[in-house]
Amino acid sequence: MVTATGATVAESAPAYFDVTGSASRARAMDAAATQFDRMETEQQRELQNSTALGRVSEAQRVARSAQRSSVASKGLAVAALKKAEAARQATEAWVLPIKGATFTSGFGWRWGRMHEGNDFATPVGTPIAAMSTGTVISTGWENGYGNKVSIQYWDGTVSVYAHMSEIDTTVGAKVAPGKIVGLSGNTGHLTGPHLHLEIHPYGGAAINPAPGCTPTTCSSRTRHPTGRRSRPQSWPQSLLRSWPQSFSSGA
User: Fold this and answer.
1) CB within 8 Å of 242: residues ≥ 6 apart
2) Taking phi first (over 0 means left), then psi (-120 to 50 degrees means alpha), and beta for anything else, what does residue 242 get?
3) Can you tell me whether residue 61 is helix, strand or coil?
4) What's the pTM?
5) Cβ contacts of 197 within 8 Å, gap of 6 or more
6) Lowest-confidence range among 48-62, 137-151, 208-222?
7) 128 near 151, Cβ under 8 Å?
8) Burial, 105: exposed, middle or buried (Cβ in 10 Å; 0-12, 13-18, 19+)?
9) CA of 14: how far to CAs of 2, 3, 4, 11, 17, in Å?
10) What is the pLDDT of residues 98-121, one digit of tens each?
11) Could you count the other beta carbons within 10 Å of the beta carbon of residue 98?
12) CA dist 51 to 40, 48, 63, 91, 230, Å?
């Protein structure tokens, strides 16, 4: 280039700016950043959702485990209750004191005095058993009764066995239903070999243990030591019902 004075000056090439391309790149970068932010947000949301689902799943697992434990505990509790009830029923079961005997004399007045029990004819040496769970409270000879054994059971009832030929237990011995305590005999005042059985609720006055005796009539003659009447269950109906099936009726 020649100036007005005739000097020659070098001329630079004009500068061009790619405004359109820069803007496009900027927009692309912004879009990419936005997309990245969106993806990152979605990933964070997914992670949060996954964590939340994991917590829910864990809570459900814990709840199921607790429920199973509860069911198992209830099952164990029910089993324990059933076992305890079975043990109680076994402990409180009532059985007949003698088998194969014949009912010969009932509760009531005999020869001018009260006959306070039932008599069952049976050969000498027939086994005699405890009627339920209890403790032997007396053994030995007593005039009229001959060899006698008394047992107090879990509910306070006392049974008296008389005229025995042999006593196979001792005072203080613990007995279970059906435990043999001696043999029937022909001792004391009697007309023939038999078992004389008396029932005394709470160890008090004797009651009628004959078939057909109800809890009310069986308890009407006896009072608890405190003055209250005997409990109706002092003589169980289940045992009363079994007497006619086990002994033939007699005079």
Assistant:
1) 96
2) alpha
3) helix
4) 0.61
5) 97, 117, 118, 119, 120, 159, 160, 161, 162, 209
6) 208-222
7) no
8) middle
9) 18, 19, 22, 9, 10
10) 988 888 888 888 878 888 888 999
11) 18
12) 16, 5, 18, 58, 70
Ranked by mean pLDDT, the top range of 58-72, 147-161, 232-246 is: 147-161
Per the listing, tokens 């209890």 go with: 134
Q: Please give the structure tokens belonging to residue 211.
A: 């078939």
Cα 33 to Cα 56: distance, rounded to the nearest angstrom: 34
Chain position carrying tokens 């391309």? 21
**How many Cβ atoms are within 10 Å of 135's Cβ, its own excluded?**
15
Which residues is 134 bridged to in the sheet?
A: 153, 175
Specify the pLDDT at position 9: 52
